[in-house]
Amino acid sequence: MFGHIFPTQNLDGFYQVFKGAPFGNDNAKKNRQAEMDVLAVANRIPPKPPRPEKFSQPGGQTVEGLYEVALKSKPEFDAKIAGLAKGLNAEVSKDFDSAMADFASGKTGTTVIMGPVKGQKRVEEKAWDYAKENGGKPDFTQIGDILRCTVAVDHVDDFDKAFEGLQKQGFSFGREPKIRMTKPTSAGYHDVMINATLSTGHVVEVQVNTKKMLLAKSEAHAHYEKQRTIEGRAVKENRPPTKEEQSELDSLIKVQKKIYAKAWKDSGG
Question: What is the pTM of this model?
Fold first, then answer.
């Protein structure tokens, strides 16, 4: 994505150069224009680039310490997200399934979904993802989604408005945001994922995505969980996937790509 190709601090100049430049088909143009709009707002959110690629959670030396800081930080996070929702004129939902049902029915308008505090068992599993860089031991300092929410918008062109809301609420980036609009994950998933830092130093997660992509994520979830299980087992055992595992991974990713490609197109991407 452009944030990796060009220094973000020089974005304003590049934004003017690329605005209206030929990028191929209409969808590609729209994607790149929408991404440039998001990057233009992101450039105004502290700290100024270059931002770190990683963060380190306070208290993350142990899972207990991590949760202690997270729970202390929750009131501030809740207040900021309430302000974000108000500024976006968004509905707030604490029930993911209910929100998904509303999206499936065609309900329009921005919705902020407040996720529950992430369970300790899942956090302990996820910490193994970072074991390779931590001497083969789980690393809780890299877990940034114990406190999390999702901003669900109707269209790709609405992403920049969500970023403007984050800026107004005084959020700062804990690391460089992942803006996967023109360059999705290996499974074809598009979104914008932000790790923001609160006054306690605790890092939280805010995802921004379209309702169509969130519905697709629910559809693809079972395939993704199988993928994570296979990959996680290989990481934990400090080995590459076996031939059979890789074949299954390829099949799982192929199915996810098909699901996400349709959803992104239906979102205006």
Answer: 0.85
